[in-house]
What we know:
6 strands; Nuclear Transport Factor 2, Chain: A; alpha+beta; six-stranded mixed beta sheet
Amino acid sequence: MTTVVTSNEAIREIEALLYEEASYLDRPDLDRWLELYTEDGTYWMPAIPDQADPHTHISLFYDDRVLMEVRRRNFKHPAAASKDYTVRASHIISNIRVEKKNAETGDCTVTSNFHCYLYYRDKQTPYAGKYTHELVRSGDGYRIKSKRVDLINCDAVLNTIIIYI
């Protein structure tokens, strides 16, 4: 059973974090995006529907903070293939639901639906699905401990995913 957080202030703070993350990915500004994550943060995109964990089946992505940093550096490198073409994205987030996991710390699980349109190499590609963010409360607000991206077509043939969705 889900317990929805009723504090409007907490909900607005969490929504602001999700919108800020989407904005950084839209630009793309992976430097600022990575700052939203905890030092032990992870980013996971399962390769099959309802995948239980990233360790017993291959994933499209399962990056810890070190791999996210490597991808960030590679994306920005002057000789990177990503520099040959403009990368543009537009993320739309909706149906944000907050489940309070720990009343003492404020740590919580947040689910939302998303649509993302990515324009790269003269091609527009739509992505859609569900996000699950594990958020931890820190002195300056919330930070992302983990993000799971369940694409509705995760088991289909996909174009190269040039940037985080």
